[in-house]
């Protein structure tokens, strides 16, 4: 009995020892330690990445002087810093960080259309059209709604995404409310209608805009509107006669200016022959007259441009007439400072030639003066000889001074 009891006791003891030797509690403790180690390692890795990222953006963050909105404009350095910061974040490829930074940027830069445009394009490129549409709506309806630039972008953006009615509405908003007579809006709207095959609608846009500008006194836009309409008409329809009629009709309606005359002279160069020089000559002659409203610099520039045009397409008589007129009006009217400068150059040139003669070796009777220059240059003092020499090169055989040569070239 005792032995059986002892056996039972021993059996119980053995069973208890077996339970204590079971590896399960030890295994569980080991697993917790490993999980904790993994967790700590992950957190340390995140901390290292965050610290590294923070070191990269520290310069950008430090340069943000005004993170809040204010009506006072930001300086150029702050605007460039925002662009650089956005470039960096976009290169990281984390859309969440990109969106957050754009939203931060648009607090300080809310009145700058360029950042709204960039935000929309970035979201479109990432495939987030909902975010792009949301940003565009906020820009056009609230933050920069009075600036035509954002509406022109909205029109193009909507056209590219198939929203033609929305694009037309954006253009009409600029024409009617934001900036009536804005030439860039008219050009882009007409070009869109041409792309859509609505050529008559495109012509109508120009004609309506011209009619409105005619009603304004001293319109600065009307001359260039005529020039652009003529060019557009020729390029899209190929009708050179109609294009010339538009320009000739404009001459009686507009005040002549350098940009307008430059435009019509250039346009005549691309039209097919025969070239019609008569209406250009009369307009240029009227503008470059001394009693015209143009500045002296503008009048001389237009005369020079017309001379270049005639050298390509005019005859000998028309070129001579234009050259004589140009010389009479502009060549004698050089500033006194230019005359003094030429006199000084002539004096220095002749003086250096005398010095060159005195320092050169005695040339033989058959030796030219120019061949003696190398010997003369070698005898300058060390400190002065290192300076670049400005007297004529050995290839010059003329005896007159460079200033006189330049004056002759200007006359012809």
Question: How would you characterize this protein structure?
Answer:
74% of the residues lie in helices and 0% in strands. It has helices at 2-20, 24-63, 76-92, 95-108, 113-125, 129-143, 148-160, 164-178, 183-195, 199-214, 222-237, 240-251, 258-270, 278-288, 296-313, 316-329, 336-359, 373-378, 382-385, 402-411. The radius of gyration is 40 Å and the shape is elongated. It is built from 20 helices and no strands. α3 (76-92) runs antiparallel to α4. The protein is an all-alpha fold. Among the domains are: 57-145; 148-248, Serine Threonine Protein Phosphatase 5, Tetratricopeptide repeat (Alpha Horseshoe); 287-333 and 403-412, no CATH class. It is found in: Nucleus. Keywords: mRNA processing, mRNA splicing, Nucleus, Repeat. One of its GO terms (biological process) is mRNA 5'-splice site recognition. InterPro entries: HAT, HAT_PRP39_C, TPR-like_helical_dom_sf. Belongs to the PRP39 family.
CATH-defined architecture of the domain at 148-248: Alpha Horseshoe
For the secondary structure, the number of strands is 0
Q: Total number of helical segments?
A: 20
Ranges where pLDDT stays below 50 over 5 or more residues in a row are 1-28, 354-412
Note the run of SSEs as H and E: HHHHHHHHHHHHHHHHHHHH
* Helical/strand content category: mainly alpha
Q: How many strands, what sense, and barrel or not for the largest sheet?
A: none
Average pLDDT confidence is 80
Beta-strand share of residues: under 5%
Give me the CATH fold name of the domain at 148-248: Serine Threonine Protein Phosphatase 5, Tetratricopeptide repeat
Compute the separation of the termini in Å. 143 Å
* Backbone shape: elongated
Q: What portion of residues is helical?
A: over 70%
* The top level CATH class name of the domain at 148-248: Mainly Alpha
Radius of gyration, taken over Cα atoms and rounded to an integer in Å: 40 Å
């Amino acid at each position: 009995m005792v032995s059986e009891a002892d056996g039972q006791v021993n059996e119980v003891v053995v069973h208890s020892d077996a339970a204590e030797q079971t590896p399960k509690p030890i295994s569980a403790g080991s697993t917790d330690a490993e999980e904790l180690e993994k967790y700590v390692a992950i957190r340390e890795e995140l901390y290292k990445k965050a610290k590294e990222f923070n070191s990269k953006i520290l310069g950008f963050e430090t340069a943000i002087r005004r993170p809040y909105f204010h009506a006072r404009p930001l300086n150029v350095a702050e605007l460039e810093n925002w662009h650089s910061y956005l470039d960096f974040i976009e290169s990281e490829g984390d859309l969440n960080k990109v969106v957050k930074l754009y939203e931060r940027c648009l607090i300080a830069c809310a009145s700058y259309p360029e950042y709204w445009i960039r935000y929309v394009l970035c979201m479109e490129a990432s495939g987030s059209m909902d975010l792009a549409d949301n940003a565009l709506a906020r820009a056009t309806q609230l933050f920069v709604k009075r600036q035509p630039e954002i509406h022109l972008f909205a029109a193009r953006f909507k056209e590219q995404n198939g929203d033609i009615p929305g694009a037309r509405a954006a253009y009409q908003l600029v024409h009617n409310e934001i900036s009536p007579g804005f030439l860039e809006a008219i050009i882009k709207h007409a070009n869109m209608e041409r792309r859509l095959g609505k050529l008559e609608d495109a012509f109508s846009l120009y004609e309506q805009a011209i009619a409105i500008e005619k009603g304004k006194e001293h319109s600065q836009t009307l001359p260039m509107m005529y020039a652009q309409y003529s060019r557009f008409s020729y390029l899209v329809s190929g009708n050179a006669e109609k294009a010339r009629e538009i320009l000739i009709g404009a001459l009686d309606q507009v005040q002549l200016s350098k940009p307008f005359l430059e435009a019509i002279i250039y346009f005549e160069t691309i039209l097919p022959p025969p070239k019609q020089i008569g209406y250009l000559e009369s307009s240029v002659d009227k503008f470059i007259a001394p009693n015209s409203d143009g500045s002296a610099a503008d009048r001389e520039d237009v005369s020079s441009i017309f001379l270049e045009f005639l050298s390509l397409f005019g005859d000998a008589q028309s070129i001579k007439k234009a050259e004589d007129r140009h010389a009479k009006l502009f060549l004698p009217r050089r500033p006194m400072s230019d005359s003094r400068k030429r006199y000084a150059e002539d004096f220095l040139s002749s003086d250096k030639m005398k010095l060159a003669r005195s320092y050169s070796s005695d040339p033989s009777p058959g030796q030219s003066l120019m061949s003696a220059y190398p010997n003369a240059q070698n005898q300058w003092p060390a400190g002065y000889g290192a300076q670049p020499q400005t007297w004529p090169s050995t290839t010059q055989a003329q005896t007159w001074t460079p200033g006189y040569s330049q004056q002759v070239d200007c006359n012809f």
